[in-house]
Amino acid sequence: MQFKKLNNDVSIPMLGFGTYKIDSSDVDAVIEGALTDGYRHFDCAHIYGNEKAIGEAFQKASIKREDLFITSKVWNEDQGYDKTLAAFEQTLKDLQMDYLDLYLIHWPNEDNFDLTLDTWKALETLYDQGKVKSIGVSNFSEEQLEKVFAMAKVKPMVNQIERHPYKVQKELGDFDTANGIVNEGYSPIGHGHLILEDPVVNKIAQAHGKTAAQVVLRWHIDTGFVIFPKSSKVSRVKENFDIFDFKLTDDEIEAINNLDQDKHLNY
């Protein structure tokens, strides 16, 4: 495993496990398999509707809480100072935990950004209280981050954004890095049938004796992004973790960067 240091010196595993769209009835088996394969970083969210099942799965596991890195997010309808605090407590209750490692604002409120700023104040309160070790945002633009910087007592530690070879996010990623914010990429292989069939990716995969998915995930790591691919398939979960025994060359990274189409694959 490789780690990144957040701007408050908290270490975050660069490879995590995504829990989006995992049905509650499948959570036990999926979480058990992920833990067995070595995953310790899990990306959760209230809106995914499975945090209670995930909490129960962790209770059954033999992994110590301090060896896990758990992220969750406050959903749009829970934004605002008091509502955010209440939503956080519900997430803690569902996950059966005393603290989170990272708590994010899931989306900025485009219509009322002042509400989002109040949400950030609530995250700062939770951070000051020690209920969460680090705080950040998701899907924020440079302009929206600047507005947070202008009022924040605690600077965001993470910005979680859509990122894959067809949406490289160079400008936003560079902006985050310049401001001490760690980049996280969700949907790291986009819709796999598109990216995993790309001839450039497959040529690089052949050169390393790896799969196309492993090459794309390694590209994220080699370009400094924290990622959390999601799969309910046991073989794919194991495959996604097997990316720490090789590195891409600068030319290979550039070849994948050049696939950028600024293309959203998530709607």
Automatic annotation (TrEMBL):
A GO molecular-function descriptor: oxidoreductase activity, acting on the CH-OH group of donors, NAD or NADP as acceptor
Active site: 48
UniProt keyword RNA-binding, yes or no: no
Entry-linked CDD domains: AKR_AKR1-5-like
Binding site for substrate: 106
PANTHER family in the record: 2,5-DIKETO-D-GLUCONIC ACID REDUCTASE, NADP-DEPENDENT OXIDOREDUCTASE DOMAIN-CONTAINING PROTEIN
Keyword NADP: yes
Marked site positions, Lowers pKa of active site Tyr: 73
Designated name of the protein: Aldo/keto reductase
Homology family: Belongs to the aldo/keto reductase family.
Stored InterPro entries: AKR, Aldo/ket_reductase_CS, NAD(P)_OxRdtase_dom_sf, NADP_OxRdtase_dom
One Pfam family here: Aldo_ket_red
Domain NADP-dependent oxidoreductase: 15-260
UniProtKB keywords: NADP, Oxidoreductase
